[in-house]
Specification:
This protein is an alpha/beta fold and 381 residues long. The protein has one domain: Aldolase class I (TIM Barrel, Alpha-Beta Barrel), CATH 3.20.20.70. It is built from 17 helices and eight strands. The chain has an eight-stranded parallel sheet. α5 crosses α17. The radius of gyration is 21 Å and the shape is globular. The termini are far apart. The mean pLDDT is 95.
Length: 381
């Protein structure tokens, strides 16, 4: 039987792996994902690195050496992460070369503490780009108000960018505008735009998590069975509706005369990347989001569990444009009952930035704990 993950390529969708774990790099499990499951890229974030470094002992030897060399916790973090990013970039390099830069990327996120700091984000993006020194690196920058100008500046400097934490259509439009302006700027200066790559990471399941909770509260607050059924009918619908409407925007934006001239000069489209596609609600199909957002020029970055579930029972079919009128009707219906789109997406952005910042600080605390444990075990003073 054909692997459903591999079948996604026939529908124009690339599968990226949302995880980096050194133990998988050493064991060969990561390479199997590339060889057998058609994975063609990797994303990571502070939460992923925090879990990987905390779990097991794959990082102990390097951390011990760095402690002996007198390195600070910050130095240790960077050394560990940069080594993993370079390793993954090198494993993905054949894909990058084969696809002429369409796929084969690994993403590294700037510090979440810089989410509201434009100059700081620009400087860290440039520093990471130089440190990693791989053409198939993408720097992850959040789509905050301070992030948008940093995205533009980083792209115009020729650095690939994965824009993260996009929840609203308005933020998505700002992100695509920054990308197209950066392309036009580089093209106007006679600089290469063919190998400049960017993806717009639109978060999916978190939308349902928040909207469904609000719907649950409204269901509990009424004893009208008709009203309860009406509210229940909206559960599990907002996230897919939102993403499908974004895809309609994507098609319009990248078919304008402005972009057509840039495309003629070698520019690529900025693909929508569906992030947070694991299903959080056990009442829903475990590959719900992966199955319902399949279409050309898209990326789905999946954690290991979603990859395994989709490999086992996923259905690969062109689904991203299913019933667009219903997608808009869903968001309209939510608005009418008082679940306001702008409030939901703003809350999700604020919470997303905070979650990554919390993970980042936990990561540093975890390294500090591991450092102290190794010092005690090894008798290092």
């Amino acid at each position: 039987m054909t692997n459903p993950l591999v079948q996604l390529h026939a529908e124009g969708q690339s599968v990226w792996y949302d995880n980096i774990d050194r133990s998988q790099l050493v064991s060969g499990e990561f390479q199997r994902l590339l060889d057998e499951d058609g994975v063609v890229g990797v994303t990571a974030n502070p939460t992923i690195f925090e879990k990987s470094i905390r779990a097991g002992h794959a990082y102990d030897q390097q951390i011990t050496q760095l402690i002996r060399a007198g390195k600070s916790t910050s130095d240790i973090y960077e050394a560990v992460v940069i080594q993993d990013i370079r390793t993954v970039a090198d494993l993905l390099r054949p894909i990058y070369d084969r696809t002429e830069g369409a796929d084969g990327y690994v993403s590294l996120e700037v510090s979440p503490d810089l989410a509201h700091d434009t100059p700081g984000t620009i400087a860290e993006a440039a520093r990471f780009w130089k440190l990693v020194d791989r053409p198939n690196l993408m720097i992850k920058i959040p789509a905050t108000p301070a992030g948008i100008p940093a995205i533009y500046e980083t792209l115009r400097n020729g650095i690939n960018v994965n824009i993260t934490l996009i929840f609203s259509i308005e933020a998505y439009r700002q992100v695509t505008d920054a990308y197209i302006r950066a392309l036009a700027d580089r093209n106007g200066r006679g600089l290469d735009i063919h190998m400049l790559a960017s993806v717009a990471s639109f978060f999916v399941s978190r939308v349902d998590t928040l909207v469904d909770k609000r719907l649950d509260d409204m269901i509990k607050a009424t004893s009208d069975s008709t009203e309860q059924e009406k509210l229940k009918a909206l559960q599990g619908k907002a996230a897919i509706a939102n993403a499908r409407l974004v895809y309609q925007d994507f098609k319009k934006i990248f078919s304008t005369p402005t972009f057509a001239s840039l495309k003629h000069a070698g520019a690529r489209v900025q693909r929508p990347l569906w992030a947070s596609t694991s299903t959080k609600n056990p009442a829903y199909r475990d590959v719900l989001y992966a199955e319902e957002l399949i279409g050309p020029d898209t990326v789905d970055t999946m954690p290991l569990e979603t990859i395994q579930n989709f490999r086992d029972h996923g259905r690969a079919r062109y689904s991203i444009e299913d019933d667009i009128p219903s997608a808009q009707a869903t968001l309209d219906a939510l608005e009418q009952i008082g679940i306001h789109y702008d409030q939901v997406t703003q809350q999700l952005l604020d919470e997303g930035v905070q979650k990554f910042a919390d993970s980042f600080h936990q990561l540093f605390a975890g390294i500090e704990n591991k450092k102290n444990a190794i010092k005690q075990e090894q008798g290092i003073h």
